[in-house]
Amino acid sequence: MSWRGSVVIQLTRLNGNPIALNSDLIKFVENAPDTVITLINGEKVIVRETSAEVIHRIVEFRRAVLAGLPSWSGSDLNSAALNPQGAHPARSPEAFRRG
User: Fold this and answer.
1) Rounded distance, CA 72 to CA 82, Å?
2) Is the residue at 97 inside a domain?
3) CA torsion angle for 21, 24, 26, 29 (degrees, to 10)?
4) What confidence tier does 68 reach under pLDDT thresholds 50, 70, 90?
5) What pLDDT score does 3 carry?
6) More confident residue, 61 or 95
7) Which stretches does DSSP call E strand in 1-99?
8) Does the residue 59 lie in any domain?
9) Does an H or E element contain 53, and which?
10) Which of 11, 53, 67, 96 could be 47's S-S partner, Cβ–Cβ 3.0 to 4.6 Å?
11) Euclidean distance between CA atoms 10 and 67, whole angstroms
12) What pLDDT, on the 0 to 100 scale, is given for residue 85?
């Protein structure tokens, strides 16, 4: 499966199964006491990650996209979001800002 152009973050359901959520469809994230993600269509997803971790993944993923990585095609988007220059190690931060 290609992740090119994808807007998903990878999380873990309570039963341990991985789930990829479209971060643009998340309405809000709450602790109740488990982490409950409510999507804009009203569907609720319960995950193992804390609300802070979910928010961090969303923010870092969007930073990576804004840094110019829409062509990244690895299997772990979260690690790419946390290390956006890993896909282009020769490019400086200034080169990323220029595009």
Assistant:
1) 13
2) no
3) 90
4) confident
5) 46
6) 61
7) 8-12, 18-22, 26-31, 35-39, 44-47
8) yes
9) helix 51-66
10) 11
11) 19
12) 52
41 closest CA partner among 22, 67, 54: 22
Tokens at 99, concatenated: 């595009």
Count of helix runs (H) and strand runs (E) in the chain: 3, 5
Where residue 18 falls among pLDDT bands split at 50, 70, 90? very high
| Count of structural domains, the chain | 1
Residue 80, number of CB atoms within 10 A of its CB: 21
Residue 15 belongs to domain spanning: 8-89
Residue 67 in any domain: the answer is: yes
* Total residues belonging to the chain: 99
| Whole-structure pTM value | 0.61
Q: Return all residues near 27 (Cβ < 8 A) that are at least 6 apart.
A: 38, 39, 40
Return the structure tokens found at 10.
Answer: 């990878």
Let me know if residue 2 belongs to a domain: no
